[in-house]
Design goal:
heterotrimer, A alpha/beta (about 290), B alpha/beta (about 325), C alpha+beta (about 350), B: about 325 residues, alpha/beta, 2 domains, five-stranded mixed β-sheet, three-stranded antiparallel β-sheet, 8 strands, about 10% strand, C: about 350 residues, alpha+beta, four-stranded antiparallel β-sheet
Chain lengths: ~290, ~325, ~350
């Protein structure tokens, strides 16, 4: 990450990483009753900055607030960046009320990334996500699909409360499901009219699917889902070095200085958000 | 002091109380800290001396949520706070076993003003001394007990405990000043002088919230200054007026409920005489509604939360000038 | 070595302020804090510890980062102008100078905080040796010599004279601006004063506090210790310790609506505050014990783990003096020593 970057809108002015860029919302998709995906472009078109899969950015509405969100679009997308945002607080409430053409502020990218060019390369991949947590994994999944030759078999296990709460359903059905060597396993918590897919919680479906350990797992979801999925993976024989996740804590600066997102010696904004589970095990139990 | 420890031990051993809330000795004679003692062994660190200024009433809010009774040691002035908290349903009288302890005036170590202070002799309980012998790295010095006392002790509310289960120890008369003299002095100032006085005091504020957090009257579960929806956040002054606003809003909020325990001024790292705001309200309440002392009992309705036909009219503000 | 009479200090300050903003300990309403110098300022070089540390000079309690407003219907972000004028910080004690090193490692590490960096670049530190160390001081524990502070210029008050020695290029340049007010002086006098200071330091009760067991390893070995449960209870959850601390660097970023725009400002925050880690959907430090533990482990374990063993405490003792409940880092260190964990 660079200390200061040239600001495209103020040529010649070196600015601090804490100062955001203005972005334009160019598309809003309603994914579920409480999740929308926002497409963001620079005012003159194109992307605000380049990022790597798993990285995050601070999204800000002046006078309302600022928070860290994972960038859900893949770096292979050269036209725009996307954020899938669940309505759950003051800022997200406001973002949900915004329209195409509205301006927001964005700074980043922040944090580390999934090791798509190193440890994940050449591996079979198992993505496990619950609810809104598909957002950070989507950037990796699409990165892998766009560089298909670099990865082996890809399994995507994704679940949510109901069929209406599955985010990116169109892309899942129209793109992911049609890719060779990609198996998508969807599940919802309870029976629902019009749903003929699997019903049950993600951890129990994971056990039913009984994957062999010749793959690297990438796990993201609510804490309770992570806990039981991790237990399931262990029972299947997965080593902690084979499982990745992303963590999320309160952040203000995004660069490891404001002092609040640390878990022991690690700052989630800077040393994370991506952690391997053997690294997570080393952290004190405060997340 | 041993008597207090012995009594606490027997109450713990008999099972009458589940824990003891008192003061624990520190590294030095002056840095005693409020503490819960869960068993007889821990009581070996119990201390009661001239440096036990901390008012333990507010800790009883948390203690009221615990299983069993808590033995709490309260000085006469602390009992006003306890009563007020009982009245506001923030502490549970049934959960407290109150030993009213004697008080000989409490010391503010800053008032001793001795660099390299190593020990203070004469602040023990019982055994009140006219003069304290202060041992320092730069030689010994004598300080009168009175000059070392907290402001609130000079205007002590009296030796009587307002609530207790039993009493231990004697109290000393410490009053040597008029409670409202400082307020009257400020009232006599011109508006410009008043403004300058408060500006110079309040501009020292570092927004640490020690005054609020120690205040027994500030017992809201969530303070308005901690709200994210309020432009005036608790930790920074967004404008030069804001530190004044924080203290003024707080003074208004505790008006009629503040017992004048003086904890706000005791803990302020910048030595701001915060009690003057509260005491101005108390003086006005006394003048406008008749003498009233918050926390003197748990039944009397507070003048600001009660309506009487003979209450003063709002135009009193202009009439008084 | 140069010197100036104490009675001529006003002239020295006036000279410095001709070309630099000057900040130094000033007594206002009975308390001494660093403030801008002017002729009416009640300069107080006798009080050992200012209530607030001088960290404000580089990392102010509250500072504007940028302003947003609408121009021709478009959102415009105007970053705050960075400090570009020289300023002198006069009278900083050895512990507080070291604290600036601690802050440097946070704010000057990548990505560099440009607001802080600009102030560091333009700030000139004139430090001041401690003639009268106090009981709460324990800087020696962190290898700090109160008799010879770091800084661009180091000064000593010996009797009625201030001794002056430039240590860096910046210090030499400042010395050149005031050279005619200073006269040549004898090093031996200062050396004698230094020896006297060191002999007092040796007698301080906490000068030989043991830091055994602290450092990176404590992040693991002491996180789950039952000692935290015993220690935290009197904590009022106020921010006094963090706000008087010279090394506490946690901050918040907030908005202020000016009426025709939004100012985004940064202000000191405290890990002791209940909302510090609160998110819309959860909080990973819900108890005061956790928040209390965070503060001390940050200073004594997490920071050293990330900074080659350097502690983020300098032993200034302000928390020892100011905690309303008389809790402090010395008590924490001693409690662990006593429990042997």
């Amino acid at each position: 990450m660079e200390a200061m970057h040239e600001c495209k809108h103020n040529p010649g002015f070196m600015r601090d990483t804490l100062v955001p860029m203005v972005g334009i919302i160019t598309d809003i998709r309603t994914e579920t009753p409480d999740v929308k995906t926002f497409r963001v472009n620079a005012p003159e078109g194109g992307k605000l900055f380049e990022h790597l899969p798993g990285q995050c950015a601070m999204v800000c509405v002046p006078g309302v607030g600022e928070a860290m969100f994972s960038i859900t679009s893949s770096p292979t997308n050269k036209e725009y960046q996307e954020f899938s945002i669940k309505r759950c607080g003051v800022l997200t409430e406001h973002l949900h009320s915004m329209q195409v053409g509205d301006e927001i502020m964005v700074r980043g990218p922040y944090g580390n990334n999934f090791p798509v060019e190193t440890e994940l390369k050449g591996k079979n991949l198992l993505f496990i996500a619950g609810g809104i947590a598909l957002a950070p994994l989507r950037s990796v999944i699409n990165y892998c699909l766009d560089n298909r030759e670099n990865y082996g078999e890809i399994d995507i296990l994704y679940g949510s409360r109901s069929a209406d709460d599955l985010v990116q359903r169109k892309e899942i059905e129209e793109v992911w499901c049609k890719q060779p060597g990609v198996n998508v396993h969807l599940t919802i918590d309870r029976e629902q009219e019009g749903w003929d897919g699997h019903v049950g919680f993600v951890p129990s479906y994971l056990k039913e699917l009984a994957f062999d350990t010749n793959r690297t797992a990438i796990l993201c979801g609510p804490p309770i889902m992570i806990k039981f999925c991790l237990q399931g993976l262990k029972e299947m024989g997965f080593a902690m070095e084979q499982v990745y996740t992303t963590l999320e804590l309160r952040m203000k600066c995004g660069v490891g200085k404001c002092g609040r997102c640390n878990i022991g010696t690690k700052y989630v904004c800077k040393d994370g958000p991506v952690f391997r589970f053997d690294q997570v095990d080393e952290l004190p139990n405060e997340y | 002091m041993q008597e207090l420890i012995n009594r606490a031990k027997s109450l713990l051993e008999s099972g009458e109380v589940a824990r003891v809330l008192g003061w624990r000795k520190g590294e030095n004679v002056w840095d005693v800290e409020p503490a819960f003692f869960g068993n007889v062994d821990e009581l070996s660190d119990f201390v009661y001396n001239g440096f036990c200024g901390a008012n333990l009433s507010k800790y009883m809010i948390e203690a009221s949520k615990l299983e069993g009774k808590t033995l709490v040691f309260l000085k006469p002035c602390d009992t006003y706070s306890f009563n007020q908290l009982t009245k506001e349903h923030r502490v549970d009288r049934e959960k407290a076993y109150i030993i009213g302890v004697g008080c000989e005036g409490k010391i503010r170590v800053e008032n001793i003003d001795a660099a390299g202070i190593l020990d203070v002799i004469g602040a023990d309980y019982p055994g009140h001394a006219e003069n304290l012998t202060v041992k320092t790295l730069y030689g010994d010095k004598e300080v009168s007990y009175k000059s070392a006392m907290l402001e609130r002790c000079h205007v002590c509310k009296g030796k009587e405990h307002m609530v207790y289960d039993e009493l231990m120890g004697e109290s000393t008369d410490t009053i040597d000043a008029d409670r409202f003299a400082e307020v009257a002095k400020i009232e006599a100032m011109s508006p410009e002088e008043k403004f300058a006085f408060f500006q110079s005091e309040l501009s020292k504020c570092i927004r640490c919230n020690a005054c609020r957090n120690v205040c027994p009257a500030c017992s809201c579960r969530k303070c308005v200054f901690d709200s994210t929806k309020f432009d005036s956040a608790q930790k920074a002054n967004t404008t030069s007026f804001e530190e004044k606003m924080f203290h003024i809003i707080r003074a208004f909020h505790v008006a009629g409920r503040c017992t004048d325990c003086g904890e706000c001024s005791r803990v302020c790292p910048q030595g701001i005489p915060l009690h003057l705001f509260n005491r101005k309200f108390i003086k006005d309440i006394n003048e406008l509604y008749g003498d009233f002392q918050a926390g003197a009992d748990i039944d009397t309705k507070g003048p600001l939360t009660n309506f009487r036909l003979d209450d003063c009219e709002p135009d009193i503000v202009t009439k008084r000038g | 070595m140069l010197k100036i009479k104490k009675s001529d200090l006003a002239a020295l300050f006036a000279r410095i302020s001709e070309k630099n903003d000057l900040f130094l300990p000033v007594k206002t309403a009975g308390k001494t804090n660093f403030a801008a110098w002017d002729e009416a300022a009640d300069v107080d070089l006798d009080t050992l510890k200012t209530v607030k540390s001088p960290k404000d000079a580089f990392f102010p309690q509250s500072e504007n980062l940028y302003t947003c407003n609408r121009e021709d219907g478009k959102l415009k972000v105007s970053p705050e102008k960075l400090t570009d004028e020289p300023f002198v910080l006069f009278g900083i004690r050895a512990c507080d100078v070291r604290a600036i090193d601690v802050l440097d490692r946070v704010f000057l590490s990548e990505p560099v905080d440009s607001y802080y960096a600009a102030r560091r670049e333009h700030g000139i530190i004139v430090s001041y040796a401690c003639n009268n160390p106090e009981t709460s001081c324990f800087c020696k524990v962190f290898g700090i010599d109160a008799a010879v502070p770091a800084g661009d210029v180091v000064t000593w008050m010996v009797g009625e004279e201030l001794y002056w020695e430039a240590k860096t290029e910046k210090g030499e340049a400042l010395t050149a601006q005031v050279r005619d007010l200073l006269v040549d002086a004898d090093v031996a006098t200062v050396e004698a004063a230094q020896a006297a200071i060191r002999s007092i330091i040796e007698k301080l009760p906490n000068s030989n506090l043991s830091l055994e067991g602290w450092g990176a390893e404590a992040a693991k070995t002491r996180f789950d210790s039952p000692v935290w449960e015993q220690l935290y209870k009197p904590c009022l959850a106020c921010g006094t310790c963090t706000f008087v601390c010279p090394t506490c660097q946690c901050y918040d970023i907030k908005d202020y609506n000016t009426g025709n725009g939004v100012q985004r400002f940064r202000c000191w925050d405290s890990c002791m505050y209940s909302d510090f880690t609160m998110m819309a959907h959860g909080n990973n430090r819900t108890s005061q014990m956790q928040r209390f533990r965070q503060r001390f482990l940050h200073k004594l374990a997490y920071y050293p783990a990330n900074n080659e063993g350097m502690f983020s405490c300098v032993g200034c003792g302000r928390c020892v003096d100011k905690c309303p409940s008389h809790l402090n880092i010395v008590k924490v260190i001693k409690a662990f020593e006593k429990e042997g964990v």
